[in-house]
Design a protein that fits this description.
Blueprint: E1 2-5, H1 9-22, H2 34-41, E2 48-55, E3 58-67, E4 72-80, H3 84-99, E5 105-108, E6 121-124, H4 140-145, E7 150-160, H5 167-173, H6 175-179, E8 183-187, H7 193-208, H8 219-228, E9 238-243, E10 246-255, H9 258-261, H10 270-282, E11 287-295, H11 304-317, E12 324-331, H12 335-343, E13 347-358
Parallel strand pairs: 4-5, 11-12
Antiparallel strand pairs: 1-2, 2-3, 3-4, 5-13, 6-13, 7-12, 7-13, 8-9, 9-10, 10-11
Helix pairs in contact: 5-11, 7-8
């Protein structure tokens, strides 16, 4: 077996192709978009290291190493055949690279930067991979744990369906919200993204500032993210609550893009873009994916969460094609949200683990 450093664009294309070997017999697998992975990893200088393992003429594994904020290193975009020697060679290589950067610990499998995508190892719910969510064979758990990594964060994906939704209970809980004439719900307008980016940052940074893993967001970053969502954005799936003109909560969701991207074979080149436009028109997605939900701390306990859940319920109930809504990346460090979702009838359908190891 030979470790190959990915230092040319040609080798990087092979890096992107490694999953074809791993998932060739997996009917549930939906490839990540190549262009998105390239944007995340390629041409980052000494901030990212990339390697593959070659065996008998095939690339049988890959890994990326990077330095995230704080004093943590990250290993991600890991793929391997079911072989501990291959996996351990990849981990050894990535950790050797990280050890030259005076770090104290490493997380796996994680993204370079944000936690909202490509983060965590799938250990439950292998039948419905979601857009920008890590998907992997079940045996990856053994490969990672056999190297000495230990789980530190459990991320759950909850699903809400109209049949399970506890409407009467939530309607009662929302009375305080509905009785307050100053509080109002507003869905976004794609022509005023700057305003909603600013409002999102106001609520998000206040709501998450006490969390251990909090990283503040900037208006410019959120504005770029919202603009990038325009081709798939449904205005009635993104809602804000205002007290007068003051933003106090938000719920951001999109249609489940993998129901479209499964037809593109992971490539959004010019042909892929044409396919995307065709299937965006032809396919009626069955799932909505909730990306993030937050309430300003000063407004918690006022029925706002219940009021927004009623709005999401109404949208799904009145759409002939939608069957459910997913809310992803609910960390075990957020028990209040987990308790609330269970109280309204949500059920856990997927679980990801973040692993850690001291360096």
């Amino acid at each position: 077996m030979q470790v190959v450093s990915v230092d040319t664009h040609s080798l990087f294309q092979s890096f992107l192709d490694v999953p074809k070997l791993i998932y060739r017999d997996d009917e549930n697998y939906v490839p990540h978009i190549r262009q998105e992975i390239e944007k995340a990893l390629w041409n980052k200088g000494d901030k990212v290291g990339l390697w593959m393992v070659e065996h008998n003429g095939d690339y049988v594994g890959r890994i990326a190493a990077f330095v995230n904020k704080g004093n943590k290193g990250g290993l991600g975009f890991f793929e391997s055949i079911n072989n501990k020697e291959v996996a351990h060679i990849l981990f050894d290589t990535g950790i050797q690279w990280l050890n030259t950067r005076s770090l104290t610990e490493v997380e796996v499998p994680v993204n370079f930067g944000e936690r909202d995508k490509f983060w965590g190892l799938l250990v439950k719910g292998f039948d419905s991979p979601s857009y920008q969510e890590n998907y992997n064979p079940p045996y990856y758990k053994d490969l990672i744990e056999s190297y000495g990594f230990e789980p530190t964060i459990t991320q759950s994906t909850q699903e809400i369906t109209p049949a399970l939704f506890q409407y009467d209970k939530i309607k009662e809980a929302a009375k305080q919200f509905e009785a307050n004439e100053n509080l109002r719900l507003e869905c976004i307008n794609r022509n005023n993204m700057r305003k909603y980016a600013r409002d999102f940052v106001t609520v998000y940074n206040a709501a998450w500032r006490e969390h251990k893993h909090f990283i503040p967001l900037t208006e410019e970053k959120v504005y770029k993210m919202m603009n990038s969502m325009k081709p798939v954005l449904r205005e009635d799936l993104i809602w804000f609550t205002y007290d007068g003109d003051i933003p106090v909560s938000f719920y951001v969701s999109i249609i489940e893009m993998n129901e479209i991207f499964r037809h593109l074979n992971g490539n959004l080149n010019w042909l892929g873009k044409l396919k995307f436009l065709y299937y965006r028109w032809k396919v009626n997605p069955r799932r909505v994916r909730g990306l993030v939900f937050g309430v300003h701390p000063d407004y918690q306990g006022r029925g706002i969460t219940s009021g927004m859940m009623l709005k999401v319920y109404d949208i799904i109930q009145n759409d002939a094609h939608l069957e459910s809504s997913e809310l992803a990346w609910i960390g075990d460090f957020n028990p209040r949200m987990l308790k609330f979702l269970r109280s309204i009838g949500a059920r856990e359908i997927k679980q990801h683990l973040t692993y850690e190891k001291k360096l």
